[in-house]
Amino acid sequence: MKIKEIYTKYKKKALITALSLATIVGTYSGNEGGFHPFYNIKAEKPYGINIGIVNVFLPGSEFYGICLGLLNTTSGGKINGLKLGIINNACGEEHGKLNGLEIAFGNIAEEGDKSYQKINGGQISLANIAESGNNFQVGLINIVDMEGNNLQLGLYNEICKDNEKEKRGFLLNYNFQKSKR
Question: What is the helix (H) or strand (E) element at residue 100, kind and residue range?
Answer without folding.
Answer: strand 97-103
